[in-house]
Amino acid sequence: MDLTTQYLGFTLKNPLVPSASPLSKSVDQAKELEDNGASALIMYSLFEEAITAETETMNRFLHQQDTGFAEADEGFLPDWQDFSTGLDQYLENLRRLKETLDIPVIASLNGVTPGGWINHAKELQQAGADALELNVYYVAGDIDLSGAEVEERYLEILRLLKGNISIPINMKLSPSFSSVGNMARRLAGAGADGVALFNRFYQPDINTDSLRLQPSLHPSTSAEALLAMRWIAILYGRIDGLSLGATGGIHTADDTIKLLLAGSDVVHLCSTLLKNGPAQIARILKGLTNWMEEQSFESVADLRGRVSALTIANPAEFERANYVNILDSYSFAPGVMV
After folding, report:
1. What DSSP assignment string belongs to 244-261?
2. What share of the chain is helix, strand, coil (3-state, %, to 5)?
3. CA 61, CA 99: separation in Å to the nearest integer?
4. Contact (Cβ atoms closer than 8 angstroms) between residue 16 and residue 37
5. pLDDT category, 59, cuts 50, 70, 90?
6. What is 5-328's CATH number?
7. How far is CA 210 from the centre of its chain?
8. What is the pTM of this model?
9. What is the residue extent of each domain of the chain?
10. For the segment 19-52, what is each residue's pLDDT rounded down to a tens digit?
11. 278 Cβ partners below 8 Å, 6+ apart?
């Protein structure tokens, strides 16, 4: 049975790729992911603003102190370059992962400024990253900013990076674009090697006791993968050379099978690995191979896209045609009076 798949120009041994998570901060845990069947690894994200804040704090500590002794101010404090920063640690972790793992290692970058995107991307490539995922976590809170301007920001970031690095670039998109398909096509035209659908924004919450904002973190559920499934099914076979990755809500072999049938090249795993550990990859692989045997599929390539908008009898089912049917099929819980 052939589980191989093509993704970002790589031939992967199977479609299961752990996505950006704390698991990649540990080389030992990353090795466990590989040993259980991971075909590639996306590192946790490097955030430009965190590096900038860290550097500014260090500069204040080293250059804005007054000890009262000029000699001490000039000679006792170490050079800032002697300190290890979050960027240094990320690059060192990347190097160690490359030394330890036999699978492709994909760095993940979230920038803020054009210079930050370019400089950090270059450093990640030099440290050995096989590819780069752009985690463009951008919430357009400025109501004077048009949708076209937001889209152009993504495209400009991509163009800048394609002009400065040579490794494949994967764009992690949010579902908030007015035309996801058109945006994916424009990104491909600007040089994107792949897209990951969809980025999952974490929403702030309000504490009703303190009347303050508080962070909220809720693991994904399998139901969330249906949004990616719909759009991958719509995009499958329509944008030449663009790899399709599904992310968000893929927990089980059944979830994985659905996304492959829709047309995904790979599925990205996060919450299920944090909940169940690296061995969940092996369990999903076993479920996938068992299902393929039952359905007489000899390869992942045979099943990919079998239930996409290109192949089903009524492609509109992925859009609006079954909307009324879904609503009409709902039944109230026993005992609920209507």
Report:
1. EEEESS--SHHHHHHHHH
2. 45, 15, 40
3. 35
4. yes
5. very low
6. 3.20.20.70
7. 34
8. 0.85
9. 5-328
10. 999 999 999 999 999 999 999 999 999 987 666 5
11. 23, 29, 32, 33, 35, 36, 38
